[in-house]
Amino acid sequence: MRLEHVDVLIVGAGLSGIGAACHLRRECAGKTYAILEARGAIGGTWDLFRYPGVRSDSDMFTLGYRFNPWPEARSIADGRSIREYVRRTAREHGIADKIRFHHRVISAEWSTADARWTVRAKRIDTGETMLLTCGFLFVNTGYYRYDQGYAPEFPGADRFTGPIVHPQHWPRDLDYAGKRVVVIGSGATAVTLVPAMAQAAEHVTMVQRSPSYVLSLPSADPVAGVLLRVLPAKAAYPVVRWKNVLMGLLFYQLSRRRPEWVKRFLRNGVHRRLPPDHDVDVHFKPRYDPWDQRPCIVPDADLFHAVRDGKASIVTDGIDTFTEDGVRLVSGRELAADVIVTATGLNVMAIGGMALSVDGVTVEIGRTTAYKGMMLSGVPNFAFTIGYTNASWTLKADLVSGYTCRLINHMERQGYRFCVPTGPAPSAGPLIGLKSGYVMRSIEALPKQGASAPWRLHQNYLRDVLLMRHGRLEDGTMRFARSALAAWKSPAETHLDAATEQESKK
């Protein structure tokens, strides 16, 4: 059977996948490509999440594409606007007709002899299995599981007589107007939901086991507002973008080097926005340092306004059990509820859950080391996108796509058929360096990072610009070959060596 072949196969049609396709079309002219998307629409995260108030937790001047600037002064944007922005980008750059919806990738098998991947996908709508081949596989599925959010088992959940809703699966017909709502969680989703639902609900109570750091920012960037009035958008955009990049880096570096100073800064910011008698140290003083977990952004202090107005409240306590009428806490206090929302987080899933093999050897993702945070040791002609944890996702996605295009063009010019990161360097920890629950639950399933570059992630956009836009492609770590008969270890042998080395250290 003759299989359909493309030069590059992109998996995922969300923010990262659409950006990757745009880069490929712009920078690798003549390369054939296709995009496989498991869902039925463009947008990824921004199409999936439909809960009240869903919005960006990064500013849109860095979350937007570098090649297609965000067109508004509004910096914190709602989910619908972001979804439309991604879809508009796909249409304007001629990407939309390259997407094959309802195609979930099940597995991908690399053959060194043929220098190509054979990708198996299942048609969600028909159940049909599809096979494609490609020269380069580029995975843009993010790192969490789309079909299932994290939902711990709460005692007594079957006794509660009202609806229990997870934000990842928000029902369109949920009616909470005039009702009492309990939101369980303290992360970005919870602090988004509480003020949004408080506009219609009788009262919303956020129940958190432990607090998170919360930072209020204006939803409209004042600098952008001024510049967009006096300068053309093409001139204003890079200024605002770099301003936000540098401010984000400064805040992160201060958080790591002067955590006590940043703690006081964040506490004072919360204290100024709440009533004098509000116990800030109980409800807004985490047990960890800033940026051990990602801080929660509150646009225009909306969470604090809801608390001050009496429409919302925050309770820091453990949950003992659900009851027929609400929630009983460990302290014995009972909270009445008509609706319970479990904003309890995500399930992590590396590379969309697909199975990888190289020359018949199964690739165990958790035993690989990430090269430049975007390729896997011993896996040829393969890249994936995971954005920054301390800055906008798209800043890193843009660099990964640009580097991938540089790599593909270099291989074309030199006549190389495949490339593979060799190593790995000794593991120095998980790829995602946060201590959030969703990361800690999934450390074994994620790639690792090494102790030094190019295996080390520094979470620093300025360093990565130099490394990925201007650094050498043939750096002694990335191996290239023109044929399977080249005198070097095959990718399968490299992967086996890596697995053996890590096993011996256990």
TrEMBL record:
The keyword Flavoprotein applies. GO terms for molecular function: flavin adenine dinucleotide binding; N,N-dimethylaniline monooxygenase activity; NADP binding. Coiled coil: none annotated. It holds the Pfam family NAD_binding_8. Keywords: FAD, Flavoprotein, Monooxygenase, NADP, Oxidoreductase. SUPFAM superfamilies: FAD/NAD(P)-binding domain (SSF51905). Its cofactor is FAD. The keyword Isomerase does not apply. Belongs to the FAD-binding monooxygenase family. This is NAD(P)/FAD-dependent oxidoreductase. It comes from Nonomuraea diastatica.
